[in-house]
Every structure is written in C-alpha cells, then in structure tokens.
Amino acid sequence: MLGGIMFGIVGSLLCLVLFFGIGFILNMLIKTTWLPLWLFFLFVVPYGLYKLWQPDLSASENVRSMLVSDIVLVIAGAAGAYISGWAIRALRKGGYKMF
Predict the structure, then answer these.
(1) Separation between Cα atoms, residue 21 and residue 12, nearest integer Å
(2) What is the spatial distance between Cα 67 and Cα 48, in angstroms, rounded to a whole number?
(3) Model pTM?
(4) What percent of the chain has pLDDT over 70?
C-alpha cells in the first residue's frame, strides 16, 4: 500500500517536471505558447492508451481496468505541459523577449 502511494507521488512529480521541461524548451525554440499541451493530448495520451489497451476486453472494460496511478500520471503530465505554457506567457508579459 505504502509503495503504491510513494509510486504515485514520485511518479506524478517526475511526469510534471518532465513535461514542464519539455514544454518550456519547445516554447523557447518554436515560440508558441500552448503547442506542448496540444502535443501532449494529441500524441502522448493516445500512445499511452494504445500501450495499455487489452484487445481481449471491450472498450468499457478497458477504461475500467486503467489504474488510478495511470490517471494520476496523465493528469500530472498535462499539468506540467499547462504550467510550461503559463510560465512562458508570464515571462513574455514580463517583457522577456527571449521567450
């Protein structure tokens, strides 16, 4: 039980920091604000669903079989991508032309 909780905490922090970093770098290089968030929902989430999908189960059973830890990791990754866009937008409003 404690191992699962620790996995959820550490895993969600890692996903948040990972997607924040990737989103921040993409925002600096491409000069877009919300592209990393869109890329997350267009590529990362479907790829994760594809890898977790079990062909012998129906669609509703597949959705029900996803663990809370899987959902927490997806939410943390989306939060990291969103926070990176918010940070870049705040830096641009603050007058930093580099971002």
Answers:
(1) 14
(2) 13
(3) 0.84
(4) 98
